[in-house]
Specification:
alpha/beta; four-stranded parallel beta sheet; 2 domains; single chain
C-alpha cells in the first residue's frame, strides 16, 4: 500500500498536479483574491532571543494561522534584510492585484484583528532552543500562537487559552530526545510532502522568518543535524533519516540547516539521497500570503533571449565572458543600482511558480533587456544530482522541464557539492550525472555547472556544458578581482576562451563594470544564452568529468 501511495505521488509530481499555474496550462487566471483587504506589519532587524524574537515568533505564527484561508497578513522587512524584495512585492500586490492594505503597528493590534484565527497559545522555553521549533509544530496542528512567558498576559487579554506549556519540559534533554518526543506526539498529524528545517541562525539570535509557511501548511519543525562527522550527533542524524524516509517522494525540505550543527553540503547531500528538494532559506518570509495569488490576467513569462533559440553562431578569436548570479534572484542585487548595465544571467527559484507566483511575476516585469533567467538549481529545487537515486532523477527532472517551459527558461544551472565544502573540494559532475542531464534535457541551449570554479565540461551536438572558471566573492577587492580575471585570460591563451563567472549574491553591479573596463582583450561580455551558443561553435575546452580518483576535501555521505 505504501508503494502504491508513492507511485501515485510520483505520477502526480510528473503531471504537475501540485502547481495551480501548470494546471492552468501556464495561462494566467484572474486572482480569486483580487481587491482583497489585507493587513501588514513592519519588522525591524532585531531577532535576538533576549530582544525582538519573542514578539516576532508570536506574529509569524499568527500570520500562518491568519493566512490559512485568505491572504490577510503580510510582513514588510527593512531593505537590508537578506530577502530585500518584501517592499517591492508589497507594492506589486497593490498595483497588480488591487490589494488594499491596512497597517498594524503592534502585536496587541495584530491579536485584536486576528485572534479568532487561533484557538489558543503554546509557550516555548527561551532556555531551550529546540522548544521554539516544537512550539511552531504545535502551532500548526493545534492552531495556537507561539509565545514566551512574558507574552502570556497579552495572549490571555485577547481570550486565548493555554494549549501547551513547554517551559521546563525539555530541560537537560538533548535535541534528539526533544524532537523524538515531538515526533511521537505530532508527526502523524503533520504534512508528509513537506517539512520545515528551521535552522539557520542559532543561539542568541534566531530568525524563523519562514515559520508562517510551516504553520499554515502544518509542517513538522526541527533543526536536526546531518553531520556524519560528529559521533555525538548520531541520534539526531538517525531521526533526520527517519523523517526523510517517511516524506513522500519529491517532497520539499523548506528552511535551512543549522549554522551551529552541520554544513549546507552535508544537509543537501543527505536530502538529495532521498530524492527530496530543498527550498530555503529559514528567513524567507510571507509564503503563507504569497501562495494565495495566481499570475495576473494575461501574463505570460517571456525571457529576454539575446539570440533566437535556433540561432547558430560562430565564435571569434577572443575572450568571451558571461556573468551569472545564482543564490536565487530574491537575495541578490535585484533592487540595487546598476542592474541592467551588464548582461546578467539570473538563476530562478522555479518552485516559486507553485507557492509565490507574484514574486516571480514581479521579477519578470521589472527585468531589463540585459536580465536573462535560467533554471536551477540542479532541478526543481536545490539538490545535488550526484547523490539523487537513479530511479528518482527522471521524475524530478520531468518536473523541472515543465517549470522551465512555464518560465521560458532554456538553460539549466547545476551545482553539486557532495564532495566539497563551500568552494573547497571536488565540485565536478560524474559522467553518469552528465549523461542523465543530456538525456533529460534534450532541448535546452546548454548547461552550466558549479558554484566556485569547477572542471566539468562537455559538448554534445549544439549543447555545451561549461563550469564556472571564477567566483566573485563580494568581499574581495575589485582590483584583486581584476587581477584574477586577467591572470585567467593570460593562462588560457587559446582563443576563443569562454570565461564563465559566478557572481556571488550582494555583489555590486556597478563595481563589476569598473572591473570589466580593466580587463585585457580582446574581450566581449555576452549574455549567457549567446555565450553557450558560441561555446558550442568552437570547442577549445577539454571534455572532462569527475574522476573517481580525484582528491576530495570533504567527507560527505557515502552512497547507500
Amino acid at each position: 500500500m505504501k508503494l502504491l501511495k508513492h507511485l501515485i505521488t510520483l505520477v502526480a509530481l510528473a503531471a504537475g498536479l501540485t502547481s495551480p499555474a501548470l494546471q492552468a496550462g501556464g495561462k494566467a487566471e484572474v486572482s480569486q483574491n483580487y481587491g482583497v483587504d489585507a493587513w501588514f506589519m513592519n519588522f525591524d532587524l532585531d531577532w535576538r532571543v533576549a530582544g525582538g524574537l519573542p514578539e516576532k515568533a508570536l506574529l509569524v505564527s499568527l500570520q500562518g494561522l491568519a493566512n490559512r484561508n485568505a491572504p490577510q497578513l503580510y510582513i514588510v522587512h527593512p531593505p537590508d534584510f537578506q530577502w530585500e524584495i518584501t517592499g517591492p512585492v508589497f507594492e506589486f500586490y497593490q498595483r497588480k492585484h488591487g490589494v488594499k492594505y491596512h497597517e498594524l503597528e503592534t502585536a496587541d493590534e495584530a491579536l485584536t484583528q486576528f485572534k479568532t484565527a487561533a484557538k489558543g497559545y503554546v509557550v516555548w522555553d527561551k532556555t531551550v532552543g529546540a522548544s521554539l521549533n516544537v512550539a511552531f509544530t504545535i502551532s500548526g496542528v493545534e492552531d495556537a500562537v507561539v509565545i514566551s512567558e512574558e507574552l502570556i498576559a497579552l495572549a490571555e487579554k485577547h481570550g486565548l487559552k493555554q494549549i501547551d506549556d513547554l517551559r521546563g519540559r525539555y530541560t537537560g534533554q538533548t535535541d534528539a530526545q526533544i524532537y523524538q518526543d515531538a515526533y511521537d506526539k505530532y508527526w502523524a498529524r503533520c504534512a508528509k510532502d513537506r517539512i520545515m528545517l528551521m535552522g539557520g541562525n542559532h543561539g542568541a539570535v534566531r530568525m524563523p522568518g519562514m515559520a508562517d509557511w510551516g504553520v499554515q501548511q502544518k509542517m513538522f519543525f526541527h533543526d536536526l543535524s546531518a553531520n556524519i562527522n560528529r559521533p555525538d550527533h548520531a541520534e539526531e542524524l538517525a531521526l533526520t533519516r527517519r523523517l526523510f524516509s517517511e516524506l513522500e517522494p519529491g517532497g520539499y525540505v523548506f528552511g535551512w540547516h543549522s549554522y551551529g550543527k552541520d554544513t549546507e553540503e552535508q544537509y543537501t547531500t543527505l536530502l538529495s539521497m532521498y530524492g527530496l528538494r530543498m527550498e530555503g532559506l529559514h528567513n524567507l518570509p510571507n509564503l503563507s500570503f504569497n501562495c494565495q495569488f495566481t499570475f495576473t490576467t494575461g501574463f505570460k513569462f517571456t525571457n529576454n533571449h539575446s539570440v533566437p533559440l535556433d540561432a547558430k553562431l560562430t565564435a571569434e578569436e577572443k575572450v568571451y565572458i558571461s556573468f551569472v548570479q545564482s543564490d536565487s534572484i530574491g537575495i541578490g542585487v535585484w533592487t540595487k543600482p546598476g542592474r541592467g548595465k551588464l548582461p546578467f544571467g539570473w538563476q530562478v527559484t522555479m518552485n516559486w511558480s507553485e507557492f509565490s507566483p507574484a514574486a516571480l511575476e514581479y521579477f519578470h516585469e521589472s527585468a531589463t533587456p540585459n536580465d536573462y533567467f535560467i533554471g536551477g538549481l540542479s532541478g526543481p529545487g536545490y539538490m545535488y544530482p550526484n547523490s539523487i537515486p537513479a530511479d528518482r532523477f527522471p521524475i524530478l527532472m520531468e518536473r523541472a522541464r515543465e517549470l522551465m517551459a512555464l518560465l521560458d527558461e532554456h538553460i539549466m544551472e547545476i551545482m553539486d557539492n557532495t564532495a566539497a565544502d563551500g568552494n573547497v573540494g571536488n565540485t565536478d559532475l560524474t559522467k553518469e550525472t552528465v549523461d542523465a542531464y543530456y538525456r533529460e534535457f534534450p532541448d535546452v541551449i546548454g548547461f552550466i555547472n558549479g558554484y566556485g570554479p569547477a572542471r566539468t565540461r562537455d559538448l554534445r551536438g549544439t549543447q555545451a556544458m561549461l563550469s564556472y572558471d571564477y567566483y566573485i566573492d563580494p568581499k574581495r577587492p575589485r582590483d584583486a578581482v581584476t587581477d584574477d580575471l586577467n591572470e585567467l585570460i593570460a593562462l588560457n591563451a587559446k582563443r576563443p576562451y569562454f570565461l564563465l563567472v559566478h557572481v556571488r549574491e550582494s555583489n555590486d553591479v556597478n563595481s563589476l563594470i569598473e572591473v570589466t573596463k580593466q580587463l585585457e582583450g580582446p574581450i566581449e561580455i555576452v549574455p549567457i544564452d549567446k555565450f553557450l551558443k558560441l561555446a558550442a561553435s568552437n570547442k577549445t575546452y577539454t571534455t572532462r568529468y569527475q574522476d573517481p580518483e580525484d582528491p576530495k576535501h570533504f567527507e560527505g555521505f557515502p552512497k547507500e
